[in-house]
Amino acid sequence: MHQTYNAAMEINLLHANQEGADHNRAHFDEWGITCLNIMSSPGAGKTVLLEKTLATLQDKLSIAVIEGDMTTELDANRLRQYNVPVIPINTGRSCHLDSKMVAGGIHTLQQKYNPNNIDLVLVENVGNLVCPAEFEVGEHAKVALLSVTEGEDKPLKYPVMFQQADCLLITKIDLVPYLNIDLERIVSNVRQINPDVTIFSVSATTEVGLDLWFYWLSTQVKHRKYTSSCF
Asked: How many structural domains is the chain composed of?
């Protein structure tokens, strides 16, 4: 009985979160904004990827960031130096952002900026390989990062995030020569979980592969803009 109750509670929680995510996405659609949910374990390189992205694309796209962190604004402060809207959300003890938290971020964004002038919102989720993938926040696509330092088996041990991802960035590939790691094995393991996911191997240090990421991201925005203009 106790296990059944917990399962019912989880279903209700996810259902309520999904309703909130749908509401958030409706706002983004109304404003013509593409929203991406950036997820990974701690230290996989989400913030440095956003730094490189803002530095390269801020003159081509109007970008805002919703920055999730458990207790600090350290990552938010790193991104503010690129002079883009950065909305920090502290989750406390929660290991992920949910749609209600992001709704608060959207409200702040709407108060301080004109959302109709924003092309892209990047949500940097809390570092965790499990929970963020289960709680949609209103995104149009999920982007997962996996560092080569995490090993080849993570997609098989933590499949949910890789099943849900629309795009996967294998990060820190400049470290491959110094590790006992098989990059092709990582890709193969991911493909077992999600055959259709777009995969890029990148290094923020050497900038290898980042041009492919920038192009993919730009096409997501253009697709959303084109789709919105058709209605």
From this structure: 1
E-only strand ranges, the chain:
34-39, 63-69, 86-90, 120-124, 141-147, 167-171, 198-201
Nearest to 31 by CA among 71, 62, 53, 77: 62
CA distances (Å), origin 37, targets 9, 40, 165: 25, 10, 9
Residue-wise pLDDT tens digits, 74-130: 999 999 999 999 999 999 888 999 999 999 999 999 999 999 999 999 999 999 999
Domain containing 114 equals: 2-229
Q: pTM of this prediction?
A: 0.91
Written as six digits, the tokens of 50 are: 């956003």
> What CATH number did the domain enclosing 167 receive?
3.40.50.300
Handedness of CA 63, 137, 109, 32 (dihedral sign): positive
d(CA 229, CA 89): 31
The neighbouring-strand residues paired with 63 are: 120
Rounded Cα–Cα distance for residues 229 and 166 (Å) = 23
